[in-house]
């Protein structure tokens, strides 16, 4: 009779089983619109009948509720197999960032953020910058280390007007006891031919229209799997569409594309794609 392989031999110990190797992952901190969901207007001034989606937004705890959504934001948990480093890279830090930290950083045991990348300068992408100091990495002496933030010059100019104390690296209103974030501002280009590296991972900027006359960035990244992340899109620019096509960067493994609504094809004033409008573009191309 053959012994059960799960049973150790007499007087022996079970063979040790190696844990699976670490891997990279994506954590969606938020997939909601600029005002997040549920829309408070639907709750404090309900219609007749009340909004079905926003009503469901209060029916379950937030972590179990697909209709409770915070500002669009992605946390990349990046494990580099070359040197064994483990990094956290954040794309966008909007108005709901504090709640995202309390809900998802705690749940996933994320200790800090190593780099931040901004897609554009709207409130739902940058107003959480005041909380950067909370997630800054710390050294062996428990001192905060600089955190690099990658952004275009246009976004930098807007951030400087809103958060002068962060750009000047000094506490707000002369309060010397206040905690000021230590930030290394890094300017990137709106150009698919000018990639940059954040915490060891290369990113290719993917400029898209976010309403006519306004450019927002998406990003192409990944070493073993190619991921294109595109939020706040109303129209694709030709170079970006080529960059994420088979003839450009090659076959994507994952396309993350925000659509604010299911129906409608949009017009010249639209700032976001709808799911139907994107399908229509695919069928027409």
Automatic annotation (TrEMBL):
Ranges for domain Metallo-beta-lactamase: 89-262
Gene3D superfamilies attached to this UniProt entry: Ribonuclease Z/Hydroxyacylglutathione hydrolase-like (3.60.15.10)
Domain of life (superkingdom): Eukaryota
InterPro entries for the chain: Metallo-B-lactamas, RibonucZ/Hydroxyglut_hydro
One Pfam family here: Lactamase_B_2
Ranges annotated as spanning the membrane: none
Region of interest (Disordered), residue spans: 1-21
Protein name as catalogued: Metallo-beta-lactamase domain-containing protein
Species for this entry: Panicum hallii
């Amino acid at each position: 009779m053959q012994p059960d392989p799960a049973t150790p031999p007499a007087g022996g110990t079970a063979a040790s089983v190696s844990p699976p190797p670490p891997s990279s992952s994506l954590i969606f901190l938020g997939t909601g619109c600029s005002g997040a969901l549920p829309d408070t207007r639907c709750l404090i001034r309900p219609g007749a009948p009340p909004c079905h989606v926003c009503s469901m937004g209060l029916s379950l705890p937030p972590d179990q509720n697909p209709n409770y959504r915070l500002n669009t934001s992605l946390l990349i948990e990046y494990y580099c197999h070359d040197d064994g480093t483990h990094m956290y890279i954040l794309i966008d830090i909007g108005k709901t960032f504090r709640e995202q930290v309390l809900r998802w950083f705690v749940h996933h045991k994320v200790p800090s953020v190593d780099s931040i990348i901004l897609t554009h300068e709207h409130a739902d992408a940058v107003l959480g910058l005041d909380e950067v100091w909370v997630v800054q990495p710390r050294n062996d002496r428990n001192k905060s280390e600089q955190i690099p933030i990658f952004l275009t010059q246009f976004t930098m100019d807007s951030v400087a007007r809103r958060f002068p104390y962060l750009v000047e690296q000094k506490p707000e209103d002369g309060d010397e006891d206040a905690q000021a974030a230590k930030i290394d501002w890094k300017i990137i280009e709106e150009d698919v031919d000018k990639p940059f590296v954040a915490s060891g991972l290369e990113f290719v900027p993917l400029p898209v229209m976010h309403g006519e006359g306004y450019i927002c960035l998406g990003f192409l990244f990944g070493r073993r799997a190619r991921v294109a992340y595109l939020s706040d899109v109303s129209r694709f620019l030709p170079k970006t569409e080529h960059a994420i096509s088979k003839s450009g960067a090659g076959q994507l493994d994952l396309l993350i594309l925000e659509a604010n609504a299911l129906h409608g094809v949009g017009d010249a004033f639209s700032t976001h794609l709808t799911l139907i409008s994107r399908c229509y573009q695919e069928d027409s191309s």
